[in-house]
Design goal:
Elements: E1 11-14, H1 22-28, E2 33-38, H2 42-45, H3 48-58, E3 62-66, H4 75-88, E4 92-97, H5 99-111, H6 119-124, E5 134-138, E6 150-155, E7 160-165, E8 173-176, H7 186-204, H8 212-234, H9 239-253, H10 266-277, H11 283-298, H12 303-314, H13 322-339, H14 353-367, H15 379-389
Parallel strand pairs: 1-8, 2-3, 2-4, 4-5, 5-8
Antiparallel strand pairs: 6-7
This protein binds zinc ion.
Residues 143, 195, 198-199, 268, 283 line the site of zinc ion.
Keywords: Oxidoreductase
GO molecular function: alcohol dehydrogenase (NADP+) activity; butanol dehydrogenase (NAD+) activity; metal ion binding; methylglyoxal reductase (NADPH) (acetol producing) activity
Domain Fe-containing alcohol dehydrogenase-like C-terminal: 189-389
Length: 390
């Protein structure tokens, strides 16, 4: 097991109605003035923003609102949030939404505490500044951003989408009510399931040997997602299935499922370029296409690892030929994503062969070259993987 540091400061409040506890919990830690950050008008129409606001009012906490976060959140709205925080003396940020809203809130929380433009942090990866504390009311289980140290922001002007990691931006509170996810459309539920499963794959496949305590946790989360996915898609108001998925999404990405390993993250890099090329591409859908292609391209580095995965998650019987077993495990992975209704080719996402060249320069900027761990990838490798996914 490699040396590691693991920080997890998030106070989880989980279950029915917990969004009504936001005010009391934040007041208890001294919050005075909160920026409530959210996405589309559905958060308001559903009454959720009103319930959260009432909870803050009851606790005597002032609040202002900034809605309009889009999927693949963009730096322009982040800058607006930074301005509101600086001018409005905001001391906490409350994200009401899924990964996009939480990521936007994290960027604002950093930007509010620095003098430079917030995008500079995504370029320099600087860590030597304060970060405003963040609380989350989660409405979309997928990205795991409610407890993770990561944020990913797009910059349309530069045609970039890039990540920034900082333990100080891990949310201090995550309010998680599975009932808030009952009305998620099936595609969004499926894309979320795919994203959380891929957060496990990124950690399971790297150039390090076995780390049983981490690997077994990881594999058990994969099995949980596979078991709960059909239940939640068949019956969207199944509280227990929704609850298991919501908690799993957090566990997949808060860090524990990868401690002591190197982790890979090449495929997330490949996918981020797709969403930068076309912000209409849902992250989970892009991953469903790219992960099997990456697996096909790299499995020869360590077919036994893939064979082990196939046995542990899909119950495949070893044939004595690790390469054949690896290919079976990859087929099963593709079939699992397809069973959720996810796309299997770039063509289904509207991406063509001549788009590949456009993505490579920003991929190099965002990931550095070589990138990945299971196999160190060059830009030629990346182009080959995109081609496999066409
Ligand atoms: Zn992801």
């Amino acid at each position: 097991m490699e040396n590691f540091e693991f920080v997890s400061p998030t106070h989880f409040v989980f279950g029915r109605g917990v969004e009504n506890e936001v005010g009391a919990k934040l007041a208890a830690v001294g919050a005075k003035r909160v920026l409530v950050h959210f996405g589309g008008e559905s958060a308001r129409r559903s009454g959720l923003i009103d319930r959260v606001s009432a909870s803050l009012d009851a606790a005597g906490i002032e609040h202002l609102e900034l809605g309009g976060v889009r999927p693949n959140p963009e730096v322009t709205l982040v800058r607006e949030g930074v301005r509101l925080c600086k001018e409005g003396d905001v001391d906490w940020i409350l994200a009401v939404g899924g990964g996009s809203v939480i990521d936007s809130a994290k960027a604002i929380a950093n930007g509010a505490c620095v003098d430079c433009d917030v995008w500079e942090l995504f370029e320099t990866k600087a860590l030597d500044h304060d970060v405003l504390p963040i609380a989350v009311v989660l409405t979309i289980p997928a990205a795991g951003s409610e407890a993770s140290k990561n944020t990913v922001i797009s910059n349309d002007e530069l045609g970039r989408k890039t990540g920034y990691a900082n333990n100080a931006q891990r949310p201090k509170f995550a309010f998680m009510n599975p009932e808030l996810t009952f009305t998620l459309p099936p595609f969004q539920t499926a894309a979320g399931l795919t994203d959380m499963y891929c957060h496990l794959l990124e950690r399971f496949f790297d150039d390090y040997g076995a780390v049983p305590v981490t690997d077994n946790l990881n594999l058990s989360l994969m099995n949980t997602i596979r078991a709960e996915a059909p239940r939640v898609l068949a019956d969207p108001e199944n509280y227990d299935a929704r609850a298991n998925i919501m908690w799993a999404g957090m566990l997949c990405h808060q860090g524990l499922a990868g401690v002591g390993r190197h982790e890979d993250w090449a495929t997330h890099g490949l996918e981020h370029e797709l969403s930068a090329l076309d912000p209409a591409i849902t992250h989970g859908a892009g991953l469903a296409v790219m992960f099997p292609a990456w697996m096909e391209y790299v499995h020869g580095e360590n077919p036994a690892r893939f064979a082990f995965y196939g046995q542990a998650v899909f119950g495949l019987t070893p044939t004595g030929d690790a390469n054949a077993d690896a290919l079976s495990a990859i087929d099963e992975t593709r079939s699992f994503f397809a069973s959720l209704g996810m796309p299997t080719t770039l063509a289904e996402l509207g991406v063509e062969e001549n788009d590949i060249e456009k993505m490579l320069p920003t991929l190099a900027q965002n990931k550095g070259v070589p990138f990945g761990s299971f196999k160190k990838l060059t830009l030629e490798d990346a182009a080959e993987i995109y081609r496999l996914a066409l």
